[in-house]
Structures are given as C-alpha cells and as structure tokens.
Design goal:
The complex is a heterodimer of chains A (570) and B (336).
Chain A lengths: L1 H50 L11 H8 L1 H34 L5 H8 L8 H11 L17 H25 L3 H9 L4 H30 L2 H6 L6 H11 L3 H28 L17 H29 L1 E3 L3 E4 L13 H33 L3 H16 L2 H12 L13 H11 L1 H13 L4 H8 L4 H12 L1 H17 L15 H10 L3 H33 L1 H6 L1
Antiparallel strand pairs in A: 1-2
Chain B lengths: L1 H18 L2 E7 L3 H14 L3 E7 L2 H10 L8 E6 H9 L3 E2 L22 E14 H6 L20 E4 L5 H14 L1 H14 E5 L4 H7 L5 E5 H9 L4 E4 L7 E9 L5 H11 L2 H8 L4 E2 L15 H4 L5 H19 L7
Parallel strand pairs in B: 1-2, 1-3, 6-7, 6-8
Antiparallel strand pairs in B: 3-10, 4-10, 5-8, 5-9, 5-10, 5-11
Classes of the chains: A mainly alpha (570), B alpha/beta (336).
Chain lengths: 570, 336
C-alpha cells in the first residue's frame, strides 16, 4: 500500500512532464504555422484580390486582366519574358553542364579551384553583370566590335547578364547529379565496346536526367522573375518584372501592377510544379554495391575540359573584373586615371553610405532571425509534430516562396502591411520588414537544407531520450543543434548573401531612412551614375565574399578540422 | 550630491532636447548632389529640425504624392516642378502659407493668389548636351535648334527623358507645344521619335550618357550640362535658337501635416536670401531678383532665352498630354 502511494506521485510526475513537453512543442508548432501563414500566404491573397479590384478597391472581376491583354505593349512583355526565359535556360544549362561534366568526368587539373570560381556570381547582385556589360559592349565598350553593330541594350544584354548570374545555380544542381555516377555502369559500357557518344548518352545523360531537368526549371524560373538585369541593360525591351516596376513605381497603378504580378506568377508556378514532379521521380541511382567512377586518364579529354572550363571562368572573371575596374576610373572613357570618387556615395542618388550600412544590418538581421526561425520550425515539424495535416501544411507553406517571384512578394507586402488597420502596420517602413520579406523570399532552400540535415540524425535518438525522460528541449540543445551545425552555418551564410544582393522584393519596401545598397545600385544607374553604381555593386560583392571567407575559416578550418570523427565515421 | 542632481537635470534636459527634435519628411526632385548641402544649411540654422529626404524624378514624386492623397506621408515639398505643384494644388492637397519675404520674389515665381499655396525657388531650363568626340566620329553636324534634331543624320544618336517621369522631359514637350502649336508639336515629336534611341526615366541621364559617350546627343537641362562639362566631359552645350522650355523648382506645405510650425519655418528659409544664394551655385536664374551671379557654362542672357511659359496651361493639360505621349511613344522607354 505504502509502496504504491510512493510510486504513484513519481509516475504522475513523469506523465505530467510528458504532457507539458507535448504542450510546448505543440503550441510552438502552432505559432510557427501561424507565422508562415501570416508572412507568406495572406500577403499573396492580397495581391490576387487587388488584381481583381479597381483603383478605389471595388471588386471588378477580371476586367483588369481584359485591359491588360488589350494593351499590346504589355502583352508584348509576356512574349519577351518567355523568350528570354527559354534562351537563358538553353545557354545556362549547356554551359553549366559542360563545366560540371569537365569537373566530374575528366581528370583535368585544378578542379577545386574551378569549382570554387563557378560560384562567384552568387556573391554579386544581378545588377553587377548588367553594369559590367555596359562597359564591355556599350557604345564606349572595350569589346564593342564583338557585337558587329548590334546593341547590348536589349535582349542580347539581358541574356548574357542573366546567363552569368544564373550559372552557379544550374551548375550546383548538375554537378551534384553528375557526381552520382555508378562506376560499374561505365565498366559495363567499356566491356560492351560502347563508343564515347553511346556511353555518354545512355549512361551519363541518363543518370543525370533528373538533375538536368531540375536545372532547366530552376534556371527558367530565375530568368523570368529576375528584375535587376533587365532593368539596367534592357533598354526598350520590356519584360514582366520591369513592367510591374513601371506600373507600381512609375505610375503608382497598383491594380495593374498586381495584374502583371499574377501573370508573372503563372510561368513561375508552372516551372515550380514541374520541378517538384521531377524531384519526386528522382531516386538515388547509387546503392551499397556502387563503385566510385574514376575517369580514364586521357590528355585529350583533360585538355579539352581544361580549355572549356578556363574559357567559362575567364568570362566570369572578365565580367566581374570589368565592374570592379570601372568603379575605380575617374571619368569613363575620357579620363582613365585611378580615382575613388565613385565611392563618394553621399553625393549621389540612392541613399549614400548609409544604405550600405543599412544593408549590413538588414542582412545580419535576416540571417539571425531566419536561421533560428526556420531551424526551429523545421525541427518541430520533422521531429515533434504528430498531426499529419499540420505537418503537411508547414511543408506546403515552406515550399510556396520558391514559386513566388520577388517582385510579387514585395508588392504583396506593401498591400498587406500598409493597411492602417493591420496590427503589424508598425513594421512598415522599418528594416525589420525588409528582413522579414527576405526571410520569406529565400525560405524554401533553407527549410529543405534543414530537412536533409535531420534525415541524417536517427529518429531512435529521440525515442531513447524520451524514454529516459530527457525533454525535447534537451534534445534540441544537446543533440540537434550541434549535429546540424554545418547546415545551420550554411543557411546563415545563404540568407546573409541573398539579403545583401537581392533587389526584387525590397525595391518596393524600403523607406527614406532604410535605403539598401542593392537598391542604391539600381537608383544610381537610373540617374545615369553608372560608375558609382558599379562601385556599390563591387562593395556588395566584396562584403559577401568576406562573409564567405569568415564562414570558411570558422566552419571548415576550425570546427570541421576538429570533428575528425564525423569524416571517419562516414 | 548637488553635483549629481545638476548632472541628472542637465542629462534630462539634453535628453528632452534630443527627443524634441522635429523630423520633417520632405519630398523632392532636387538633384541628389545638392540635397546634403541644402539640408545642412537649413539644419545649421534650425538645429531642432531634421530633414528626411525622399527623392525621385519629378513624375515619380508627383505620382507618389497623388497616390498618397488620402493618407499623405510628406510634410513639405521642397524642389518640385511648379507645374506639378499646381496639379497638386488643383487637387486640394497643399496648405496655404505666405512665407516671410514673399513680396521680395519676382512675381513670375509667386502663386499670386491672396492665399498662396506654393513659392518658386529657381528656374531650370532645357539644354542639349552634344558629345563632340562622338559627333565627329559619326560625322554629325552641330545642331543649333530644336528643328535640327529631326534631321535623319541623327537617327539613333538622340536620347531624351520620358516626360511622364521626368520634369525636364515634360518642360520640353510643353514648351514645344507652346512655341509650335499643339498639332505641329505632335508632328515634330513623331519625327524626333525616329531619331531617339531611348527615353530615360531621369532628366539628368541623357546628359550623363552624352558625357560618357554612350550617346552623341542628350536632351537634358542646363544645370546638368554645366556640371558634366565641368567634370571634363567633351561636351558642347547647345541652347536651341527657338527658345528654351523651363520650369521653376518650387516648394509647398502638404495639407494635413502635423508639423505645421516646423514646416512654416522651413518655408521661410526656402525663400530666404541665403537659400537663393545656395540655389545660385547651380542655377543661373533664382526667384529673388538681384541675387543671381553668373554661373559657369550658362549663357549670360539666360533669362532672355527662356520662353514665356504658361504654367497654368501646362498644369491643366499635363495629364492629357502625358497619356497621349505614352500612347504614341512609350515602347522605347526605359523601365520605370
């Protein structure tokens, strides 16, 4: 009797503790779901409803869309956008494939160097290549003759600029796909005396087909939604992203801006859905019996590979180098002496040096809040959520940002947060809303990174820990955070770099005292101050590269260097 | 102890002083390089007021103000085209205020109604920037008149601002209409359109593009032309013989501001003699007679070259002219 009465309280205490645990994770999961709905879903609903209303907010059905499709110049932009998307996708995927193939299927030297350099464009705002192209191929461009009289202002400039900027995105996907090659298949092909092209087609391409398709869709989405390149070098060639800007900023016609936004959403959504479909089909072709593929030694293939990658790398470096060089020139093209005048941002449009420091603050804020929020949300959802519907809801909301163009997201945020009766109205015009919009804009990749990281942590840890009465909190702090450190640091860097370089969403959201460096590049170019624009773009790129260097020092040299057990175990 | 209390009181007083600083949101289309100088001069005299600039091209600032009509964000407009302020005045968006020294201004720069809503600051006028190196390279003759610009030899070599977004663009169009008559002006622009390679969003950009040789001819305004030439660009500044379109930069208080007192002090400063001298650094014609000194690279008879501009007509017809312009020519416009 007594023994029972002693045992009972301890039992109920454990039960109570368990209940409490379930409670706080349950509440936290609800909060994160609500936050996702507020910051991703509701603003988008607002854009669609504005597209269906007139200037005074009365519902008018699809009449705005009818007006849209009756104005030839706007419809023209739709075709322009699609054709730019197709051309850029073709060039990017071809180049990225050649580059990745050389790095994975030949024995060319300096692979690490070339792999690192391929990522360079990621660290620059998309405005940088466009500005560089003005100096390379504009009327005073040093390589102007290469265009045989054609103008860089228009489709040619847009395609080259976007190809540069999207290259690393396509390269990463294709590189990963090409790496997963089973050596046994190549041995089989050799023993069947299959020729090079036959092997290439039926082994290499066939293995990488899903990666290639994925690269196609990602490149297409980026090309149709990018704003910076088309704005700077597009001349009189209009695309949907610049049309939204024209309608909203130039004419303050928000209804028509929303209509263009919804139209832009369609190709992006289609491309996104197709990509998800491909991802589902994709399964690892590797298994425990696979052998690593070692390319044969051949001077010829190594030579061709080295030449191809060098050519592409030189192009990338030329574009970046031109922008950097131009930023230090006193008065292009008549006085080529060295000068720091272009870095006197306080004398130009765009918000001056303050805009640079605003960007630093905003990017840090984005990286800090974003990493914590996305990590906790992903952890709650993957490891604590017991309700399948809620889990799917979070997953779904986390995927939406990938499909939403930045211009549309920015517009959505104006509508949603600028309503005087919205309790979140206080955020409007602050650095915080710029950070939140950036987190929402780049949410998907971060969420997927954490999901992948958690997959490597055995679920049995949780069961064991809970059975010995360890709380969820302990698990989070002592197990998940340390083991996910590589993913956490990468997501932090990813958010920082993207927040520094992005223009599309924030261009609608900045206020006079929260001007950003990337927007300053745009506004300086708009006022004809192209060299200072190049200077600010250079500064952004250098900052992002510095962030990458710090990240590399901390995580690759100091921490991973000590965690030898991790590599030893793998 | 006493010291501590004194320190505390002083600290509180200082804190209160800092907190009492009034921030004015000022919308402007003044050239960016002048903004800091203007604000510094004003704030030096009025340390308790701080100016927050919102700057963009004339058309954009006008559109922004019109869009915010129900919920105005600006307290003061300092440096926007007179025609734009008249449009805003017609919409009932400006507060009446007669700043100190109003009578000293040239009547051309005054609202001249019993309860004035705006005051003029200075005039900015059209000019054509011709890059001599590029002109020689392409064998282009030096234009001397507006009519010259339609000569087919200039095809693809002319850049001008879009009048819908640029105040400079609009004063060109409105002056052509006043000089030639409306129908002939449209015919003229049809011909000119054939020679234009693109329309820019900013009024400065055509001259900056001419200065850097991106185009041979940029239709712009005298202030920018003089600045670019001063920087060492191989420019010839042409003032067309038919006459120059011009507009005034003007200022007004936005109706509904909660900072009326500070706004009025700013308006008093805006037409003070010191402010006029400040404008005269870049502009040859200012609102207060007898102040202006000649400005380098400007013609000495600037006030004789400008046309007799009918601002009321321009303001009343602005919307109609711009829609027609957009319908005819917008395909060649830069985004924005």
């Amino acid at each position: 009797m007594t023994s029972i009465s002693i045992a009972q309280p301890s039992n109920s205490k454990a039960a109570q503790r368990k209940r409490l645990t379930i409670k706080w994770t349950g509440i936290a999961a609800l909060v994160t779901l609500a936050a996702l709905a507020i910051f991703v879903l509701l603003p988008l609903v607002e854009v669609v409803s504005r597209a269906l209303a007139d200037k005074d907010g009365n519902f008018v059905g699809i009449s705005n869309f009818i007006t849209y499709f009756q104005s030839p110049s706007l419809v023209n932009s739709l075709f322009n956008t699609l054709s730019i998307g197709l051309m850029v996708t073709f060039f990017v995927v071809t180049l990225a494939f050649s580059y990745a193939y050389a790095l994975t299927h030949t024995r060319m030297p300096f692979k690490g160097f070339f792999r690192a350099l391929a990522m360079l464009p990621i660290f620059a705002p998309s405005l940088l290549p466009a500005i560089a192209l003005v100096y390379l191929f504009g009327n005073q461009g040093i390589l102007k003759e290469w265009l045989f009289g054609a103008s860089i202002y228009g489709p040619i400039g847009i395609v080259i600029g976007m190809t540069f900027w999207i290259f690393p995105h396509a390269f990463m996907i294709i590189y990963t796909a090409l790496q997963q090659n089973d050596g046994r298949l190549y041995e089989a092909a050799t023993s069947c005396k299959a020729g090079f092209w036959h092997t290439f087609y039926s082994v290499t391409l066939s293995n990488a087909r899903y990666g290639l398709l994925s690269a196609v869709f990602v490149s297409f989405t980026l090309a149709v939604t990018d704003f910076g390149v088309a704005k700077v070098i597009g001349g009189q060639y209009d695309v949907l992203a610049t049309d939204i800007y024209k309608q909203v900023i130039g004419q303050q016609n928000f209804a028509m801006g929303s209509v263009v936004g919804v139209v832009l959403l369609l190709p992006a959504l289609f491309s996104f859905a197709a990509d998800r479909w491909v991802q589902k089909k994709q399964q690892s072709t590797l298994n425990a019996k696979s052998t690593p593929f070692t390319p044969e030694k051949s001077w010829l293939t190594s030579g061709v590979a080295l030449a191809t990658t060098s050519l592409i790398t030189i192009t990338l470096l030329t574009i970046v180098g031109m922008a950097v060089y131009a930023s230090f020139i006193k008065f292009w093209p008549y006085n080529l002496s060295f000068s720091l005048n272009n870095y006197q941002f306080d004398l130009m449009d765009g918000g001056g040096w303050e805009s640079y420091f605003n960007s630093l603050k905003m990017a840090t804020l984005t990286a800090m809040i974003g990493t914590v929020f996305i990590f906790v949300t992903a952890w709650l959802n993957e490891r604590c959520q017991t309700n399948a519907i809620m889990r799917q809801a979070v997953d779904f909301l986390s995927m939406i940002p990938m499909a939403v163009p930045g211009m549309v997201l920015g517009l959505a945020y104006i509508f949603f947060f600028n309503q005087p009766n919205n309790p979140l109205n206080f955020m409007y015009g602050t650095l915080l809303i710029l950070a939140v919009s950036s987190i929402a804009h780049f949410y998907t990749v971060c969420h997927l990174s954490f999901k992948t990281a958690f997959k490597q942590i055995d679920k049995e840890f949780d069961q064991v820990a809970l059975s010995v009465n360890r709380s969820r909190w302990d698990m989070l702090v002592k197990l998940y955070i340390p083991l996910s450190m590589p993913a956490i640091s990468s997501v932090f860097l990813y958010l920082f770099v993207n927040a520094m370089t992005t223009v599309s969403a924030v261009v609608f959201l900045y206020a006079s005292d929260t001007a950003l460096a990337s927007v300053a590049v745009l506004n300086m170019d708009d006022a004809g101050d192209i060299a200072p624009a190049a200077a600010m773009a250079t500064l952004i790129m250098v900052t992002c590269l510095a962030a990458k260097a710090v990240h590399w020092l901390i995580f690759d040299v100091l921490i991973i260097g000590r965690q030898t057990w991790r590599t030893a175990g793998a | 102890m006493n010291n501590k209390i004194t320190a505390l009181v002083t600290g509180l007083a200082l804190a209160a002083g800092v907190a009492a600083k009034t921030e004015l949101t000022v919308y402007t289309a003044v050239e960016a390089e002048d903004l800091k100088r203007y604000a510094d001069t004003f704030e030096a005299q009025n340390p308790d007021i701080e100016i927050n600039w919102v700057r963009d091209s004339t058309g954009i600032i006008t559109a922004k103000l019109l869009a915010e009509k129900e919920n105005p964000q600006a307290d003061v407009i300092w440096g926007l085209a007179g025609t734009s302020l008249m449009v805003l005045g017609n919409e009932g968006m400006l507060a009446s205020y007669k700043p100190q020294g109003y009578e000293l201004l040239d009547p051309k720069f005054r609202d001249n109604s019993p309860e004035p809503q705006w005051v003029g600051m200075d005039a900015w006028m059209a000019a054509i920037c011709v890059n001599t190196v590029e002109a020689e390279k392409h064998n282009l003759p030096m234009p001397t008149s507006w009519a010259d610009l339609t000569n087919p030899v200039y095809q693809g070599h002319v850049i001008m601002p879009n009048p819908a977004s640029s105040g400079t663009g609009f004063l060109d169009v409105s002056s052509w209409m006043q000089m030639m008559g409306e129908d002939q002006a449209w015919d003229y622009m049809d011909d000119l359109h054939n020679n234009i390679s693109r329309y820019t969003h900013s009024g400065s950009k055509p001259c900056k593009l001419a200065a850097s040789g991106e185009t041979a001819i940029g239709v712009s305004f005298a202030f920018r032309a003089a600045k670019s030439k001063e920087q060492g660009a191989p420019l010839e500044i042409v003032f067309p013989t038919e006459g120059l379109g011009w507009d005034m930069e003007a200022a007004a208080i936005v109706k509904g501001t909660e900072k009326q007192a500070a706004a009025e002090r700013l308006m008093d400063f805006i037409i003070s003699r010191e402010a006029m001298e400040m404008y005269n650094v870049g502009y040859a014609i200012v609102a207060m007679p007898g102040v202006a000194k000649p400005v380098k690279h400007f013609p000495e008879n600037a006030s004789e070259l400008i046309i007799d501009n009918d601002f009321a007509w321009a303001a009343a017809n602005r919307d109609r002219i711009l829609s027609e312009w957009t319908r005819r020519y917008d395909g060649k416009s830069e985004a924005k």
